[in-house]
Amino acid sequence: MAAKSLRRALFIVNPNARNGRKSVATVRQVLEDGGLTLVDAAPAQGENLSDVIRRMSKACDLVIVGGGDGTLNSAAAGLVETALPLGVLPLGTANDFARTIGIPPDAHEAAKLILSATPRPIDLGEVNGHLFFNVASIGFSAELASELSEKAKKRWGKLGYAIVAARLLARSRLFTAYVEHDGSVEEIRTMQVSVGNGRHYGGGMTVEETATADDGRLDFYSLEVDHWWRLLTLLPSLRKGTQGKWDDVRAFQTTEVTIKTSRPRAVNTDGDLTTWTPAYFRIREKAIHVFAPLDKQQGLLTPIETEVSNDR
Length: 312
Known about the structure:
Distance between the termini: 15 Å
Number of domains: 2
Keywords: ATP-binding, Kinase, Lipid biosynthesis, Lipid metabolism, Magnesium, Metal-binding, Nucleotide-binding, Phospholipid biosynthesis, Phospholipid metabolism, Transferase
CATH class of the largest domain: Mainly Beta
Pfam families: DAGK_cat (PF00781), YegS_C (PF19279)
Structural class: alpha+beta
GO molecular function: ATP binding; ATP-dependent diacylglycerol kinase activity; metal ion binding
InterPro entries: ATP-NAD_kinase_N, Diacylglycerol/lipid_kinase, Diacylglycerol_kinase_cat_dom, Lipid_Phosphate_FormReg, NAD/diacylglycerol_kinase_sf, YegS/DAGK_C
Mean pLDDT: 85
Order of helices and strands: EHEHEHEHHEEEHHHEEEEEEHEEEEE
CATH architecture of the largest domain: Sandwich
Low-confidence stretches: 296-312
Number of helices: 9
CATH topology of the largest domain: Tumour Suppressor Smad4
Strand order of the largest sheet: 6-5-18-15-8-9
Radius of gyration: 19 Å
Helix content: 25-40%
Largest sheet: 6 strands, antiparallel
Protein name: Lipid kinase
C-alpha cells in the first residue's frame, strides 16, 4: 500500500534532542500538507516511548519519531511489538541510524521521504533483551557514553564526543573478555568490544565498511591495542570501517555472540548504558519497517507492501 494512504501518524518529537525544537512547525506543515493527520503524544510519568507507541497503536497507522539515536532506541520495543512502520526525523547530535539507511540529514527532506517512500524491513540488534539500531559496545565507548552528558552533547554536538574521548583515552586500560561465537571461545585483552547491526555509530565512526542494517548479520570488532596512542593511528580506519584489516583488531561477522568479563561491565547501546556483562547478542532480522530510500549502497533492495487498515 502506498505511503500516501497512511493517514494517521503518531508524532513524537524529543524536545531535549539537540535540534528537537528547531523547524518542528514547518516539518509538521510538510507532513500535514502531504495528507497525514498528526496525533501528538508524549510519555506520561513512568513511561518511555515504547509505552506511548503501545498505548496509541490502535489510533495510528505509522509512527514518526523526531530525535537522535537514543530517542529511536527508546521506541524500538514498541515498534517491534505493534509492527507499526517508522518515519525518522533526524534531530539528534549524530543521527547515525538515519545516515546508515540513507535518510536525509535535513528534517524537511526527511519528512518528504516519509510521504513518498515505501516502508522497508530493517534488522535490529539485541543484547540481554535490549534492542539497538546501530552498535553496542563494552569498554571505551561505554565509558564515553557515561561521561558525555546530554548538556554537553546539546552544546557541543559531535565536538563533544571528541573532547570527552581525548580525556578518556589517557586513562584507558585493557581488560580481559571471553568471546563465545560459532562454537568457539576466545580469551582476549581489549580496550573496546563493539557489536554492530548498522554501519555508523558514535558520531562518525563505522563498525564495518560493508555493513548494512538489513544484511541479517552482526559485525564484531575488538580493539586489542598495546597503547592508547595506537588508537590515533587507527582513527582513519575506524571512520571508514576498515579497522578489521589491522593486526591488533579482531573482527568477524556472526548472528549471535556472548561476551563475558571477570567483573560486570556496562554495555552501551545507541549511546545509552542499558545492561551489563555477561552480554548475549543476537540479530533480530527484519524486526521493524522504516520509511527509507531505495539505495543499493545501503543494501535496501527489496520493496515490501505494508498492509495497513484504515479502520484502525
